[in-house]
Amino acid sequence: NAGVTQTPKFQVLKTGQSMTLQCAQDMNHNSMYWYRQDPGMGLRLIYYSASEGTTDKGEVPNGYNVSRLNKREFSLRLESAAPSQTSVYFCASSEEWGNTEAFFGQGTRLTVV
Amino acid sequence: SQQGEEDPQALSIQEGENATMNCSYKTSINNLQWYRQNSGRGLVHLILIRSNEREKHSGRLRVTLDTSKKSSSLLITASRAADTASYFCATDMFSGGYNKLIFGAGTRLAVHP
């Protein structure tokens, strides 16, 4: 039982490049989320998917897009990377977001140069 | 602005001592959760306390919740070097039709042998 799996673990991008961060969970959870973590800022919600087929913006959605491909997978896309998007990205899932325990992936450390 | 804010930002203690971290939040909640993050890793859920609960225990962890003061505390008793980590509180916030989990900036705990 892998829990929440994120790929890749590390990535370096040049400004203007695009990439997709992948996330998959094997716990049959309804809700999935993408957070970014910057030093001293805690975790900030980028996008979330309360259930399969729905996505919505969080606190800091600008510059990102998401796809809830199916119940298992929730991807985050950076269309044109900027240095301000240098961060650690975490995917998480839960049976019911906010009301139950959340399970986190190990994170993707992204550097945009 | 963030819903939850931890205090202190950093805490340094000796093994065997107790560690207390506090969390204050701004709006009404249904529940409050505490998470631990070891350096370079994802977050791990510790405890969830609901708004109608005042205290909860899990092993060496004790969490209290005072909804009148909009605050919570996490007590780690008889701390160990392995407790060295960052600790985050997270509160549910209902907006946009969904419940979201909003994190504070965290308390960095260092336990010295």
Characterize the structure shown:
- The complex is a heterodimer of chains A (113) and B (113).
- Chain A is mainly β and 113 residues long.
- Chain A is 0% helix and 51% strand.
- In chain A, strand 9 (87-94) and strand 10 (103-104) form a beta hairpin.
- The radius of gyration of chain A is 13 Å and the shape is globular.
- The mean pLDDT of chain A is 93.
- Chain B has no helices and 11 strands.
- Chain B starts with a strand and ends with a strand.
- The mean pLDDT of chain B is 91.
- Classes of the chains: A mainly beta (113), B mainly beta (113).
- The A-B interface holds A 4, 33, 35, 40-45, 48, 50, 56-59, 90, 92, 94, 96-107 and B 2, 30-31, 33, 35, 40-45, 48, 88, 90, 92-94, 96-106.
Number of DSSP-assigned strands of chain B: 11
Specify Rg of chain A, calculated over alpha carbons: 13 Å
What integer value in Å does the Rg of chain B equal? 14 Å
List the total number of helices of chain A: 0
Q: Give the H and E element order of chain B.
A: EEEEEEEEEEE
Report the helical percentage of chain A. under 10%
Low-confidence stretches of chain B: none
Please bin the fraction of helical residues of chain B: under 10%
What structural class should be given to the helix and strand makeup of chain A? mainly beta
The quaternary state of the protein chains shown equals: heterodimer
Main beta-sheet annotation of chain A:
7 strands, mixed
How much of the sequence lies in strands of chain B comes to over 45%
Order of helices and strands of chain A: EEEEEEEEEEE
Give the mean pLDDT of chain B.
Answer: 91
Which class do the helix and strand fractions of chain B yield?
mainly beta
Instruction: Categorize the overall geometry of chain A.
Output: globular
